[in-house]
Design brief:
By secondary structure, the protein is of the alpha+beta class.
């Protein structure tokens, strides 16, 4: 039988091969061959080198493919972050792309720089547009108010004349209503004119609870017509320094805005809440309705003059509210959730009673 054995030989490590010589089924001798490991390794070395080169090439190709896939993944991820940034920056100017290393970082820095310049330019244009609107608004307001005041004075004069010359109690009652309402419209026009030019403002101490009740009472017929229930929540009477006519005009315009938000809805509610922070001496007056809400994309425009989404509105109501509040140095905050609610909150100092 053949016999191959590897191991230590007299002259070194090697492999010995024994091949028997058979004659007539008898072993008459052996053919014996020995090859040293050193010689075998020399012959196999080129093959080892080729295998190592092939493995290295395969590893290199694998690394290259992985790098390309990773680079493409990072590219897609970076592009998605750019898309998200573009979508968000329109609603939040404070958002900026993050700092990064390499080419992505250079791109981000450039985009952030351009965004800053664009936003600054946009703010300048917005201020210029607002100033132009103010000028146009002032001119139109003065013109309209001047034309309205003259016929109103005639209406009031003739109603007073009818009241004085009549002995019918019903006529006297109705003409008095006409005269009183005409006088109230005159005062409202005066408030409107105060937005366009500086009139004498009478700032005195008033009970804000009374001013709110007076404002609400003027709109009770509107509340009934729109099936609106209202509540006024206050833990005490608060006193502030203000022009009473201006303050009532603020409340009326915000209530009218709430009424327009119902638009045929059911279960309409308006909540007026007065709350104070004794430590800071500040009073908050909030008017909340459960109307259609204000979409986020128009929130920044609602105080612009002549801007409105209603076909029968002049777009001056909330503009007047903001102008009066700014002139008093008060703060106005608006929050809303589409199709659920809107809340206007005015924050002002109040007088602490001893």
């Amino acid at each position: 039988m053949d016999f191959i054995q590897g191991g230590e030989l007299v002259w070194g490590n090697g492999i010995a091969v024994f091949f028997p010589i058979i004659r007539n089924n008898e072993s008459i001798g052996y053919i014996w061959a020995v090859e040293l490991d050193e010689n075998i390794n020399k012959e196999l070395f080129p093959m080892y080198v080729n295998i190592a080169i092939a493995v290295s090439i395969l590893i290199g190709i694998g690394i290259a493919v992985f790098s390309i896939l990773l680079f493409k993944y990072n590219d897609k991820k970076y592009i998605r972050s750019l898309n998200d940034y573009i979508k968000c920056i329109s609603s939040d100017n404070s958002i900026r792309l993050p700092q990064m290393q390499g080419i992505y970082g250079e791109i981000n820095n450039t985009i952030n720089l351009l965004s800053n310049q664009f936003i600054e330019q946009k703010e300048i244009e917005t201020r210029m547009l607002k100033a132009e609107n103010m000028l146009v608004g002032s001119f139109i307001t003065l013109s309209i108010a001047h034309e309205i005041k003259n016929p109103l004075m005639s209406i009031k004069g003739f109603s007073d004349l009818i009241k004085e010359s009549s002995s019918d109690n019903s006529i006297i009652k109705y003409t008095k209503i006409i005269s009183d309402e005409t006088e109230r419209i005159n005062k409202l026009i005066g408030n409107l004119l105060s937005v366009s030019k500086k009139n004498d403002v009478i700032n005195e101490k008033h009970c804000i609870n009374n001013l709110i009740n007076e404002s609400v009472s003027l709109l009770l017929p509107n509340f009934r017509r729109h099936n609106v229930s209202y509540t006024i929540k206050s833990s005490q009477d608060y006193y502030i320094i203000c022009d009473s006519n201006r303050f009532k005009q603020i409340i009326l315009n915000m209530l009218l805005n709430s009424l327009s938000a119902f638009n045929g809805r059911d279960n309409n509610k308006i909540e007026i809440t007065l709350s104070d922070t004794a430590e800071s001496g500040m009073l908050s007056v909030s008017i909340k309705d459960n109307g259609c809400g204000i979409p986020d994309y128009i929130m920044q425009d609602i105080f612009q003059p002549f801007w409105t989404t209603k076909s029968n509105s002049t777009g001056l109501g909330l503009f007047i509210v903001k102008s009066f509040i700014d002139s008093m140095g008060w703060q106005l905050h608006v929050s809303s959730l589409k199709d659920l609610w809107t809340c206007f909150t005015i924050t002002m100092p109040y007088i602490k009673e001893d």
